[in-house]
Amino acid sequence: QQQVKQSPQSLIVQKGGIPIINCAYENTAFDYFPWYQQFPGKGPALLIAIRPDVSEKKEGRFTISFNKSAKQFSLHIMDSQPGDSATYFCAPRGDFGNEKLTFGTGTRLTIIP
Amino acid sequence: ETGVTQTPRHLVMGMTNKKSLKCEQHLGHNAMYWYKQSAKKPLELMFVYSLEERVENNSVPSRFSPECPNSSHLFLHLHTLQPEDSALYLCASSQDFGNEPQYFGPGTRLLVL
């Protein structure tokens, strides 16, 4: 059973556009919703995360939108730049012992100049 | 830098060799993780240690053997691997096990011949 579904698998956006990456989950015990960014040859790095007490969080050009009833959260990148080209993973979490640790399948984002 | 280091960065080994991967975190975290990342596959959690005790083992073949001598160090001992074990092996740590951000090392790129 796939607990986390991430889409799209790949995305190409022109510079300045707003790529949107989605993550759907099944486990209602999740209460921490992060996005990780991974550049080639590097490990993933935490980009932005949200807790379920708010529906949106913005940090710089990155925004998470959270829809608890739909069990979905998404990443928006405003004014995207070629340097944002990377693979993005969602990885919702719950309390210790409540769930299996699961990452989304990843979205390979390419920003073209 | 994320504060998580991994050595070696690259490793080529034959199927009859024995080698070890090393991970060290300088963040004072209590939980450490081993992940396998293969092309076109989601990140696969292999092992989790919390306060030096193994808390999760996701049906990993016995040719992979983890060791956590203290909360700052994590090893992955490899023996009689198969070519399909070739992948990027990532170590991560978090303050505690559960709904916390994870900090990843740069990974060890393993090639099994």
The counted number of beta strands of chain B is: 11
Outline the low-pLDDT stretches of chain A.
none
Number of strand segments of chain A: 10
Helix-residue proportion of chain B: under 10%
Q: Helical residue percent of chain A? A: under 10%
* Sequence of secondary-structure elements of chain B: EEEEEEEEEEE
Continuous helix count of chain B: 0
Oligomer: heterodimer
Shape of chain B: globular
**How large is the radius of gyration of chain B?**
13 Å
Give the percentage of residues in beta strands of chain A: over 45%
- Derived from helix and strand composition plus strand pairing, the structural class of chain A reads mainly beta
Largest chain-chain contact?
A-B, 27 and 25 residues
Low-confidence stretches of chain B: none
Q: Could you walk me through the main structural features you see in this protein, from its secondary elements to its overall organization?
A:
The complex is a heterodimer of chains A (113) and B (113). With 113 residues, chain A is mainly beta. Helix content of chain A is 0%, strand content 48%. Chain A has no helices and ten strands. Chain A has a five-stranded antiparallel β-sheet with strand order 1-3-8-7-6, with no helix packed on it. A five-stranded mixed β-sheet of chain A has the order 2-10-9-4-5, with no helix packed on it. The radius of gyration of chain A is 14 Å and the shape is globular. Chain B has 113 residues and is an all-beta fold. In chain B, the strands form two sheets. In chain B, strands 2, 4, 5, 6, 9, 10 and 11 form a seven-stranded mixed β-sheet that branches. In chain B, strand 7 and strand 8 form a beta hairpin. At the A-B interface, strand 5 of A face strand 5 and strand 10 of B.
